[in-house]
Amino acid sequence: MQISAELSLYPLTPDYDAPILAFIHRLREQPGIRVATNGLSTQLTGEYGAVMAALTEAMEPTLREGPTCSFVLKILNVAIEPGVLEEV
């Protein structure tokens, strides 16, 4: 099953750029998913298992080693190409 996930990372520190960029780089290293970013969020698309595994691999170091932070995550049970208007 193909899914899409949209997430935003909010490090609760004045130096918020570094944790966000490190997180995005870890996501881009994960196999089997498409990653797109914009100024507000990061979107992942792929098979359910691949997306969830990528999230686990990329989020854990941020939560364990980074500053206090908040992740906001939305998951959709269809694959959506970032930037493409989808008819509903």
TrEMBL record:
Name of this protein: Thiamin/hydroxymethyl pyrimidine-binding YkoF putative domain-containing protein
Organism: Neolewinella lacunae
